[in-house]
Design a protein that fits this description.
Blueprint (H helix, E strand, L loop, with lengths): L6 H46 L1 H6 L1 H13 L11 H6 L3 H10 L1
Amino acid sequence: MRRRPGIGGLQTAAAVRDHYRLLGENVAKLRTDLMKEQLSTFRSQLEDFARKHKNDIKKNPVFRSQFHEMCAKVGVDPLASNKGFWAELLGIGDFYYEHGNDLV
């Protein structure tokens, strides 16, 4: 007959579970921190790109559409508000947003 684990076995199993839980929390925190860092880097590079190509974004409707499509894929909406960062950077706001929706 096989013996069932006693108190020592139960305590060991609980310690193992706690260890794995802490390990999982640490891994999740590391991944979250890395993702935040990557998003910060991406945002700064996207801002630099927008500054560099500001005139093309304003004047070329095809380029503006491609830029907006790229931003939409990553969850950034440069046309969302006339008081936000993107409106200040690109000089666009609700007026252009409404006309952009007319074209779609």
